[in-house]
């Protein structure tokens, strides 16, 4: 069903983005792999996947904070294979901003990467996605609903991305479906101690950490199998968000 369809994944050189690229590539999709600074990792992933299927992965370098150039990024993507079926808003900044320490630069970075860029990139991609009856999937966070202490700006940005998902579903239907995936304990932030990791795991009902493959499979489901879903957030967190 997905052979030769085209997906643009932002921030796809590492972590969940790279895992998703591998899974969708295995389903026959052609990958537009966006990166900002991680050129070496992006080229390594491109080489790996093109060795499996020739000329199936192309790289796109861009700073998503450069809003004026986002339409050109989409045009670059269209010029490669002549179509766009799926946009995955995966690129994100994540770091603490305790109240009393927040700078405008931090605000602009966190809101920009997690909310502003997904909006303007989706807006630019929408005409092409409409042509293919495609879809948009954004990676949100369980902390969009329950804020993470000392991460107020990040939490607000992800909450905005949830509303963006719902708003775009309203604006772009019926041609384009728009959904999101909210990961829980999948990959750990840097400098998180073992005690904190175990405390987080203990709050899940499944009592274990998830894996990037869990998120990639949720994304695959939303692309391939969820033809009657739009404006929804698929939470993949082992039940943690249900725990007080």
Runs in which pLDDT lies below 50 for 5 or more consecutive residues are none
Number of helices: 7
Task: Please tell me what the overall shape is.
Answer: globular
CATH fold descriptor: Rossmann fold
CATH superfamily: NAD(P)-binding Rossmann-like Domain
Oligomer: single chain
Task: Please give the domain count.
Answer: 1
Listing every helix as H and every strand as E from the N terminus to the C terminus, the arrangement reads EHEHEHEHEHEHHE
CATH architecture: 3-Layer(aba) Sandwich
Q: From the helix content, strand content and strand pairing, which structural class follows?
A: alpha/beta
CATH class wording: Alpha Beta
- How many strand segments? 7
| Biggest sheet record | 7 strands, parallel
| Fraction of helical residues | 40-55%
**Beta-strand content bin:** 5-15%
Radius of gyration: 17 Å
| Main sheet: strand order | 3-2-1-4-5-6-7
Distance between the termini: 41 Å
Instruction: Name the average pLDDT.
Output: 95
